[in-house]
Amino acid sequence: MNNELLLENLRCIPDWPIKGVNFRDVTTLFKNPEALQEITNEMYNLYKDKGITKIVGIESRGFVMSSAVACKLGAGIVLCRKPGKLPCETVQESYAKEYGIDTIEIHKDAIDENDVILLHDDLLATGGTMEAACKLVKKFNPKKIYCNFIIELHEEFPNSRKIFEDHGIEVTSLLKF
Question: One of 61, 105, 131, 161 is an active-site residue; which one?
Answer without folding.
Answer: 61
